[in-house]
Amino acid sequence: MVKLKSNDDKEFEVEEAAVIQSEMIKNMIEDGCATSVIPLPNIDSKTLIKVIEYLNKHINMGKAAETGEEDDLKEFDEQFVNMGWEELFDVIMAANYLNIHELMELCCQSAADRLKNKSVRAVREMLKITNDLTEEEEQEIINDAPWAFEGPEIDDTVN
Amino acid sequence: MENSPKLQCNATRSNQWKIPPNFFQCNASIPKGRESTSYGLFQLTWNEKNKAMRSVVLSLSLVSLLFANVSLRYRFRECLSRLEFSVVKERLKQGSKRVASLNVHFSVVIKPNKKKKGNDSNNEYFNKLSVDVITSIFLRCPVKALSMLRCTSKSWNDLILSPSFARSHQKQSMKNSPKLLSMQCEYSKGVERAHQLTWKEKNKAMRSVVLSLSLLSSLFANVLHAVV
Protein backbone atom coordinates (compact mmCIF):
# COMPACT_ATOMS: atom_id res chain seq x y z
CA MET A 1 0.00 0.00 0.00
CA VAL A 2 1.11 3.52 -0.73
CA LYS A 3 0.01 6.51 1.32
CA LEU A 4 -0.84 9.78 -0.41
CA LYS A 5 -1.44 13.03 1.40
CA SER A 6 -3.53 15.82 -0.11
CA ASN A 7 -2.82 19.51 0.41
CA ASP A 8 -5.46 19.68 3.12
CA ASP A 9 -3.59 17.05 5.15
CA LYS A 10 -5.81 14.06 4.49
CA GLU A 11 -4.17 10.71 3.94
CA PHE A 12 -5.30 8.09 1.49
CA GLU A 13 -4.10 4.53 1.12
CA VAL A 14 -3.90 3.19 -2.38
CA GLU A 15 -2.81 -0.19 -3.67
CA GLU A 16 0.56 -0.10 -5.32
CA ALA A 17 -0.80 -1.80 -8.44
CA ALA A 18 -3.27 1.07 -8.83
CA VAL A 19 -0.99 3.93 -7.97
CA ILE A 20 1.80 2.97 -10.36
CA GLN A 21 -0.40 4.13 -13.22
CA SER A 22 0.99 7.45 -12.19
CA GLU A 23 4.41 7.74 -13.82
CA MET A 24 5.50 10.15 -11.15
CA ILE A 25 4.70 7.86 -8.24
CA LYS A 26 5.97 4.83 -10.12
CA ASN A 27 9.34 6.55 -10.45
CA MET A 28 9.29 7.48 -6.80
CA ILE A 29 8.63 3.91 -5.78
CA GLU A 30 11.38 2.64 -8.07
CA ASP A 31 13.78 5.14 -6.57
CA GLY A 32 12.79 4.08 -3.08
CA CYS A 33 11.33 7.45 -2.15
CA ALA A 34 7.86 6.20 -1.37
CA THR A 35 8.49 4.47 1.92
CA SER A 36 6.45 6.90 3.96
CA VAL A 37 3.59 9.22 3.03
CA ILE A 38 3.83 10.96 -0.35
CA PRO A 39 2.71 14.56 0.01
CA LEU A 40 0.86 16.04 -2.97
CA PRO A 41 0.87 19.79 -2.35
CA ASN A 42 -1.02 20.62 -5.56
CA ILE A 43 -4.00 18.36 -5.09
CA ASP A 44 -6.91 18.79 -2.71
CA SER A 45 -8.66 15.83 -1.15
CA LYS A 46 -11.79 16.15 -3.27
CA THR A 47 -9.77 15.86 -6.46
CA LEU A 48 -7.53 13.16 -5.05
CA ILE A 49 -10.57 11.02 -4.22
CA LYS A 50 -11.68 11.30 -7.84
CA VAL A 51 -8.23 10.37 -9.10
CA ILE A 52 -7.99 7.39 -6.77
CA GLU A 53 -11.44 6.25 -7.86
CA TYR A 54 -10.17 6.27 -11.43
CA LEU A 55 -6.93 4.47 -10.56
CA ASN A 56 -8.77 1.73 -8.67
CA LYS A 57 -11.19 1.18 -11.52
CA HIS A 58 -8.43 1.03 -14.10
CA ILE A 59 -6.17 -1.18 -12.03
CA ASN A 60 -6.58 -4.14 -14.34
CA MET A 61 -6.73 -2.33 -17.62
CA GLY A 62 -4.78 -5.01 -19.43
CA LYS A 63 -7.08 -7.75 -18.25
CA ALA A 64 -10.24 -5.86 -19.09
CA ALA A 65 -10.00 -6.70 -22.76
CA GLU A 66 -9.81 -10.41 -22.06
CA THR A 67 -12.59 -10.60 -19.54
CA GLY A 68 -15.00 -8.53 -21.57
CA GLU A 69 -15.06 -5.73 -19.07
CA GLU A 70 -14.13 -3.21 -21.69
CA ASP A 71 -17.67 -1.92 -22.05
CA ASP A 72 -17.96 -1.62 -18.32
CA LEU A 73 -14.80 0.46 -18.20
CA LYS A 74 -16.01 2.62 -21.04
CA GLU A 75 -19.21 3.28 -19.19
CA PHE A 76 -17.27 4.15 -16.06
CA ASP A 77 -15.14 6.62 -18.02
CA GLU A 78 -18.21 8.26 -19.46
CA GLN A 79 -19.70 8.63 -16.00
CA PHE A 80 -16.38 9.75 -14.57
CA VAL A 81 -15.96 12.79 -16.79
CA ASN A 82 -19.51 13.86 -16.17
CA MET A 83 -18.56 16.72 -13.89
CA GLY A 84 -18.40 20.50 -13.85
CA TRP A 85 -15.69 22.49 -15.59
CA GLU A 86 -13.91 23.42 -12.44
CA GLU A 87 -13.79 19.87 -11.17
CA LEU A 88 -12.69 18.63 -14.57
CA PHE A 89 -9.82 21.10 -14.66
CA ASP A 90 -8.79 20.12 -11.15
CA VAL A 91 -8.61 16.48 -12.25
CA ILE A 92 -6.71 17.42 -15.41
CA MET A 93 -4.16 19.31 -13.41
CA ALA A 94 -3.81 16.46 -10.94
CA ALA A 95 -3.41 13.98 -13.80
CA ASN A 96 -0.84 16.24 -15.39
CA TYR A 97 1.09 16.54 -12.15
CA LEU A 98 0.95 12.85 -11.32
CA ASN A 99 1.57 12.01 -14.95
CA ILE A 100 -1.30 9.58 -15.42
CA HIS A 101 -1.41 9.32 -19.15
CA GLU A 102 -4.77 7.59 -19.60
CA LEU A 103 -6.60 9.91 -17.22
CA MET A 104 -5.10 12.95 -18.89
CA GLU A 105 -6.21 11.63 -22.25
CA LEU A 106 -9.72 10.94 -21.02
CA CYS A 107 -10.25 14.32 -19.37
CA CYS A 108 -8.63 16.44 -22.07
CA GLN A 109 -10.67 14.65 -24.69
CA SER A 110 -13.79 15.33 -22.69
CA ALA A 111 -12.88 19.02 -22.36
CA ALA A 112 -12.15 19.22 -26.08
CA ASP A 113 -15.46 17.53 -26.92
CA ARG A 114 -17.33 19.98 -24.76
CA LEU A 115 -15.66 22.96 -26.40
CA LYS A 116 -15.89 21.56 -29.89
CA ASN A 117 -19.18 22.82 -31.19
CA LYS A 118 -19.74 25.70 -28.82
CA SER A 119 -20.12 29.23 -30.05
CA VAL A 120 -17.49 31.76 -29.06
CA ARG A 121 -19.95 33.47 -26.76
CA ALA A 122 -20.83 30.21 -25.03
CA VAL A 123 -17.17 29.30 -24.48
CA ARG A 124 -16.44 32.69 -22.98
CA GLU A 125 -19.37 32.39 -20.65
CA MET A 126 -18.70 28.81 -19.60
CA LEU A 127 -15.08 29.42 -18.76
CA LYS A 128 -15.50 33.01 -17.64
CA ILE A 129 -13.06 34.37 -20.15
CA THR A 130 -12.86 38.10 -20.71
CA ASN A 131 -12.66 39.05 -24.33
CA ASP A 132 -9.56 41.16 -24.77
CA LEU A 133 -9.62 41.24 -28.55
CA THR A 134 -10.66 44.35 -30.38
CA GLU A 135 -13.46 44.24 -32.87
CA GLU A 136 -10.96 44.52 -35.72
CA GLU A 137 -8.84 41.66 -34.41
CA GLU A 138 -11.92 39.54 -33.98
CA GLN A 139 -13.06 40.27 -37.51
CA GLU A 140 -9.62 39.39 -38.80
CA ILE A 141 -9.79 36.00 -37.12
CA ILE A 142 -13.25 35.37 -38.52
CA ASN A 143 -12.03 36.36 -41.99
CA ASP A 144 -9.20 33.84 -41.71
CA ALA A 145 -11.65 30.98 -41.51
CA PRO A 146 -15.24 32.14 -41.95
CA TRP A 147 -16.42 28.57 -42.47
CA ALA A 148 -15.54 27.73 -38.87
CA PHE A 149 -18.13 30.14 -37.57
CA GLU A 150 -21.01 28.73 -39.54
CA GLY A 151 -22.90 25.52 -39.40
CA PRO A 152 -25.98 23.99 -37.84
CA GLU A 153 -23.95 22.16 -35.18
CA ILE A 154 -22.79 25.31 -33.46
CA ASP A 155 -24.29 25.38 -30.03
CA ASP A 156 -24.85 28.63 -28.21
CA THR A 157 -26.08 27.12 -24.97
CA VAL A 158 -24.03 27.19 -21.81
CA ASN A 159 -23.66 23.96 -19.92
CA MET B 1 -10.83 61.56 -39.85
CA GLU B 2 -14.51 62.28 -39.61
CA ASN B 3 -15.28 58.66 -38.94
CA SER B 4 -12.83 58.31 -36.13
CA PRO B 5 -14.02 58.89 -32.60
CA LYS B 6 -14.00 62.54 -31.85
CA LEU B 7 -11.26 63.91 -29.79
CA GLN B 8 -11.07 67.60 -30.02
CA CYS B 9 -8.45 69.74 -28.54
CA ASN B 10 -8.82 73.42 -28.47
CA ALA B 11 -5.91 75.48 -27.51
CA THR B 12 -7.26 78.79 -26.49
CA ARG B 13 -5.38 81.83 -27.36
CA SER B 14 -3.10 82.86 -24.66
CA ASN B 15 -2.64 86.44 -23.67
CA GLN B 16 0.92 87.04 -24.42
CA TRP B 17 2.69 86.09 -21.23
CA LYS B 18 0.11 84.48 -19.12
CA ILE B 19 -1.09 80.99 -19.57
CA PRO B 20 -4.61 80.86 -18.26
CA PRO B 21 -5.63 77.70 -16.41
CA ASN B 22 -7.83 76.70 -19.27
CA PHE B 23 -5.13 77.26 -21.77
CA PHE B 24 -5.46 73.78 -22.98
CA GLN B 25 -8.86 72.27 -23.27
CA CYS B 26 -9.53 68.77 -24.28
CA ASN B 27 -12.92 67.43 -25.17
CA ALA B 28 -13.07 63.82 -25.99
CA SER B 29 -15.62 61.16 -26.40
CA ILE B 30 -14.24 57.68 -26.42
CA PRO B 31 -16.37 54.62 -27.04
CA LYS B 32 -16.21 52.46 -23.99
CA GLY B 33 -14.65 49.06 -23.94
CA ARG B 34 -12.86 49.34 -27.23
CA GLU B 35 -9.41 50.26 -28.18
CA SER B 36 -9.46 53.16 -30.48
CA THR B 37 -7.05 55.43 -32.14
CA SER B 38 -7.86 59.05 -32.53
CA TYR B 39 -6.06 61.47 -34.65
CA GLY B 40 -6.30 65.13 -34.37
CA LEU B 41 -4.77 68.35 -35.26
CA PHE B 42 -4.62 71.28 -33.03
CA GLN B 43 -3.36 74.68 -33.66
CA LEU B 44 -1.80 77.01 -31.28
CA THR B 45 -1.96 80.61 -32.27
CA TRP B 46 -0.99 83.72 -30.55
CA ASN B 47 -0.21 87.28 -31.35
CA GLU B 48 3.23 88.23 -32.08
CA LYS B 49 3.91 91.87 -31.45
CA ASN B 50 7.38 91.93 -32.66
CA LYS B 51 10.21 89.77 -33.75
CA ALA B 52 11.78 89.74 -30.35
CA MET B 53 8.73 87.83 -29.17
CA ARG B 54 9.39 84.96 -31.45
CA SER B 55 11.59 82.95 -29.20
CA VAL B 56 9.20 83.59 -26.35
CA VAL B 57 6.34 82.31 -28.46
CA LEU B 58 8.23 79.25 -29.45
CA SER B 59 9.13 78.36 -25.92
CA LEU B 60 5.53 79.02 -24.94
CA SER B 61 4.42 76.60 -27.61
CA LEU B 62 6.70 73.99 -26.19
CA VAL B 63 5.26 74.60 -22.76
CA SER B 64 1.76 74.27 -24.13
CA LEU B 65 2.66 71.02 -25.81
CA LEU B 66 3.91 69.71 -22.56
CA PHE B 67 0.73 70.93 -21.00
CA ALA B 68 -1.37 69.19 -23.58
CA ASN B 69 0.56 66.04 -23.03
CA VAL B 70 0.08 66.10 -19.30
CA SER B 71 -3.56 67.00 -19.62
CA LEU B 72 -4.30 64.15 -22.01
CA ARG B 73 -2.35 61.72 -19.94
CA TYR B 74 -4.21 62.73 -16.87
CA ARG B 75 -7.59 62.41 -18.47
CA PHE B 76 -6.98 58.98 -19.87
CA ARG B 77 -4.50 57.85 -17.28
CA GLU B 78 -5.89 54.37 -16.89
CA CYS B 79 -6.38 53.44 -20.43
CA LEU B 80 -3.93 55.40 -22.45
CA SER B 81 -1.43 53.17 -24.11
CA ARG B 82 0.15 55.48 -26.61
CA LEU B 83 0.25 59.17 -27.10
CA GLU B 84 2.29 60.77 -29.76
CA PHE B 85 2.75 64.34 -30.61
CA SER B 86 4.50 65.60 -33.58
CA VAL B 87 4.88 69.10 -34.82
CA VAL B 88 3.70 69.16 -38.36
CA LYS B 89 4.16 72.70 -39.32
CA GLU B 90 5.30 75.86 -37.85
CA ARG B 91 4.76 79.04 -39.63
CA LEU B 92 4.66 82.71 -39.23
CA LYS B 93 1.64 84.35 -40.72
CA GLN B 94 2.01 87.64 -42.39
CA GLY B 95 -0.75 90.15 -42.29
CA SER B 96 -2.12 92.96 -40.30
CA LYS B 97 -1.67 90.78 -37.24
CA ARG B 98 1.41 88.74 -37.04
CA VAL B 99 0.52 85.40 -35.76
CA ALA B 100 2.69 82.47 -35.06
CA SER B 101 0.95 79.20 -35.29
CA LEU B 102 1.95 75.72 -34.61
CA ASN B 103 0.16 72.76 -35.99
CA VAL B 104 0.47 69.69 -33.91
CA HIS B 105 -0.51 66.27 -35.01
CA PHE B 106 -1.31 63.76 -32.39
CA SER B 107 -2.63 60.28 -32.11
CA VAL B 108 -4.00 58.68 -29.02
CA VAL B 109 -4.54 55.02 -28.50
CA ILE B 110 -7.04 54.29 -25.84
CA LYS B 111 -7.44 50.83 -24.53
CA PRO B 112 -10.57 49.51 -22.91
CA ASN B 113 -10.27 49.85 -19.20
CA LYS B 114 -9.92 46.32 -18.00
CA LYS B 115 -9.82 46.95 -14.31
CA LYS B 116 -13.30 46.51 -13.05
CA LYS B 117 -13.97 46.22 -9.40
CA GLY B 118 -14.94 42.80 -8.15
CA ASN B 119 -14.14 41.24 -11.44
CA ASP B 120 -10.98 39.49 -10.36
CA SER B 121 -12.50 36.09 -10.88
CA ASN B 122 -12.35 36.56 -14.63
CA ASN B 123 -10.65 33.77 -16.48
CA GLU B 124 -10.76 31.88 -13.24
CA TYR B 125 -10.91 28.40 -14.65
CA PHE B 126 -8.44 28.76 -17.41
CA ASN B 127 -6.08 30.92 -15.42
CA LYS B 128 -5.45 28.00 -13.16
CA LEU B 129 -4.31 25.82 -16.01
CA SER B 130 -0.80 25.86 -17.28
CA VAL B 131 -0.12 26.36 -20.96
CA ASP B 132 0.80 22.67 -21.14
CA VAL B 133 -2.63 21.64 -20.01
CA ILE B 134 -4.48 24.04 -22.29
CA THR B 135 -2.33 22.84 -25.14
CA SER B 136 -3.20 19.23 -24.46
CA ILE B 137 -6.89 20.11 -24.51
CA PHE B 138 -6.57 22.11 -27.71
CA LEU B 139 -4.60 19.29 -29.31
CA ARG B 140 -7.73 17.19 -29.13
CA CYS B 141 -9.94 19.79 -30.77
CA PRO B 142 -10.66 19.62 -34.47
CA VAL B 143 -9.37 22.40 -36.69
CA LYS B 144 -12.82 23.90 -37.10
CA ALA B 145 -13.22 24.31 -33.36
CA LEU B 146 -9.74 25.79 -33.04
CA SER B 147 -10.44 28.35 -35.73
CA MET B 148 -13.37 29.47 -33.68
CA LEU B 149 -11.63 29.23 -30.31
CA ARG B 150 -9.04 31.72 -31.57
CA CYS B 151 -11.77 34.29 -31.22
CA THR B 152 -12.24 33.87 -27.48
CA SER B 153 -9.22 35.77 -26.24
CA LYS B 154 -5.78 37.04 -27.14
CA SER B 155 -3.84 34.40 -25.29
CA TRP B 156 -5.82 31.60 -26.92
CA ASN B 157 -5.34 33.15 -30.30
CA ASP B 158 -1.60 33.40 -29.76
CA LEU B 159 -1.37 29.86 -28.49
CA ILE B 160 -3.34 28.36 -31.38
CA LEU B 161 -1.38 30.33 -33.96
CA SER B 162 2.01 29.39 -32.58
CA PRO B 163 3.99 27.21 -34.99
CA SER B 164 4.89 24.72 -32.29
CA PHE B 165 1.23 24.17 -31.51
CA ALA B 166 0.37 23.73 -35.18
CA ARG B 167 3.04 21.05 -35.48
CA SER B 168 1.91 19.13 -32.40
CA HIS B 169 -1.68 19.37 -33.50
CA GLN B 170 -0.85 17.88 -36.83
CA LYS B 171 0.98 15.00 -35.18
CA GLN B 172 -1.83 14.38 -32.73
CA SER B 173 -4.54 14.32 -35.34
CA MET B 174 -2.59 11.94 -37.49
CA LYS B 175 -2.24 9.62 -34.55
CA ASN B 176 -5.91 9.77 -33.78
CA SER B 177 -7.38 9.65 -37.22
CA PRO B 178 -9.57 6.57 -37.22
CA LYS B 179 -11.13 7.30 -40.54
CA LEU B 180 -10.03 5.85 -43.78
CA LEU B 181 -9.48 9.21 -45.29
CA SER B 182 -9.36 12.43 -43.46
CA MET B 183 -8.58 15.74 -44.88
CA GLN B 184 -7.12 18.38 -42.79
CA CYS B 185 -6.58 21.97 -43.57
CA GLU B 186 -3.96 23.64 -41.54
CA TYR B 187 -4.52 27.30 -41.47
CA SER B 188 -2.04 29.96 -40.76
CA LYS B 189 -2.43 33.63 -40.29
CA GLY B 190 -1.42 34.56 -43.78
CA VAL B 191 -2.67 33.32 -47.06
CA GLU B 192 -0.64 30.18 -46.98
CA ARG B 193 -2.68 27.11 -46.50
CA ALA B 194 -1.33 23.64 -46.42
CA HIS B 195 -3.44 20.61 -46.52
CA GLN B 196 -2.60 17.15 -45.64
CA LEU B 197 -4.15 13.90 -46.52
CA THR B 198 -3.85 11.04 -44.14
CA TRP B 199 -5.38 7.66 -44.11
CA LYS B 200 -4.99 4.30 -42.56
CA GLU B 201 -3.78 1.60 -44.76
CA LYS B 202 -5.26 -1.70 -43.74
CA ASN B 203 -3.57 -3.82 -46.29
CA LYS B 204 -1.66 -3.60 -49.51
CA ALA B 205 -4.68 -4.28 -51.68
CA MET B 206 -6.12 -1.05 -50.35
CA ARG B 207 -3.21 0.91 -51.63
CA SER B 208 -4.47 1.58 -55.12
CA VAL B 209 -7.86 2.48 -53.75
CA VAL B 210 -6.22 4.89 -51.37
CA LEU B 211 -4.09 6.39 -54.08
CA SER B 212 -7.00 7.00 -56.37
CA LEU B 213 -8.93 8.42 -53.46
CA SER B 214 -6.05 10.73 -52.74
CA LEU B 215 -6.09 11.99 -56.29
CA LEU B 216 -9.78 12.57 -56.00
CA SER B 217 -9.35 14.34 -52.74
CA SER B 218 -6.59 16.56 -54.00
CA LEU B 219 -8.95 17.57 -56.74
CA PHE B 220 -11.45 18.21 -54.02
CA ALA B 221 -8.96 20.20 -52.04
CA ASN B 222 -8.21 22.21 -55.10
CA VAL B 223 -11.82 23.11 -55.58
CA LEU B 224 -12.17 23.82 -51.89
CA HIS B 225 -9.19 26.09 -52.06
CA ALA B 226 -10.63 27.97 -54.94
CA VAL B 227 -13.85 28.45 -53.01
CA VAL B 228 -12.11 29.50 -49.82
From TrEMBL, chain A:
Q: Which residues form a coiled coil?
A: none
Domain named SKP1 component dimerisation: which ranges?
Answer: 102-148
Tell me what this protein is called: SKP1-like protein
Its assembly, as annotated, is: Part of a SCF (SKP1-cullin-F-box) protein ligase complex.
SMART domains attached here?
Answer: Skp1
Q: Which family is this sequence assigned to?
A: Belongs to the SKP1 family.
* UniProt xrefs under InterPro entries: SKP1 (IPR016897), SKP1-like (IPR001232), SKP1-like_dim_sf (IPR036296), SKP1/BTB/POZ_sf (IPR011333), Skp1_comp_dimer (IPR016072), Skp1_comp_POZ (IPR016073)
Q: Which GO terms describe its molecular function?
A: cullin family protein binding
A GO cellular component entry from the record? cytoplasm
Swiss-Prot/TrEMBL keywords: Ubl conjugation pathway
* Role played: Involved in ubiquitination and subsequent proteasomal degradation of target proteins. Together with CUL1, RBX1 and a F-box protein, it forms a SCF E3 ubiquitin ligase complex. The functional specificity of this complex depends on the type of F-box protein. In the SCF complex, it serves as an adapter that links the F-box protein to CUL1.
An example GO BP is: protein ubiquitination
**What pathway annotation does it carry?**
Protein modification; protein ubiquitination
CDD domains annotated for this entry?
Answer: BTB_POZ_SKP1 (cd18322)
Question: Residue limits of the SKP1 component POZ domain?
Answer: 1-59
UniProtKB/TrEMBL annotation, chain B:
- Pinpoint the F-box domain residues: 127-165
Q: Pfam families from the xrefs?
A: F-box
Domain of life, per the record? Eukaryota
- InterPro entries reported in the protein's UniProt record: F-box-like_dom_sf, F-box_dom
Name recorded for this polypeptide:
F-box domain-containing protein
Species of provenance: Capsicum annuum (Capsicum pepper)
Q: What is the lineage of its organism?
A: Eukaryota, Viridiplantae, Streptophyta, Embryophyta, Tracheophyta
